[in-house]
Amino acid sequence: xxxxxxxxxxxxxxxxxxxxxxxxxxxxxxxxxxxxxxxxxxxxxxxxxxxxxxxxxxxxxxxxxxxxxxxxxxxxxxxxxxxxxxxxxxxxxxxxxxxxxxxxxxxxxxxxxxxxxxxxxxxxxxxxxxxxxxxxxxxxxxxxxxxxxxxxxxxx
Length: 156
What we know:
Blueprint: H1 3-26, E1 31-36, E2 39-44, H2 46-55, H3 73-78, E3 80-83, E4 88-91, E5 107-108, E6 113-119, E7 122-127, E8 132-137, E9 143-145, E10 150-155
Antiparallel strand pairs: 1-2, 3-10, 4-6, 4-9, 5-8, 6-7, 8-10
């Protein structure tokens, strides 16, 4: 499979996941589980996630729907996460082989381009909404990102 075919397939999968997410949010369903061959996907509504978190406090989650452990509060207050505004493929540089827009340890300012997200064959510039030093790059170039997923963390 060529890189272009892989990107098109990824874009189609993202579009399908986004449509399923919209369906879940508009319905009264708490959970939507889909299996196709060896691939499985579970989508839970925010209300269902909140209820399961409250009910299972102290009990470890199991299976593929396991939530990530939250970061310590001190770390959260010290850094600001720049979030993806849309779902797509994230790129750290304007083209393959080019210098990345940002690196860990570099200073960024508000409005500075930090990467690109390709969605539906369009490249969207992603700009920082915070100024400071980049302490962490959360995703690799070419990775699939969802809307509201952290891309970089900035320390003011």
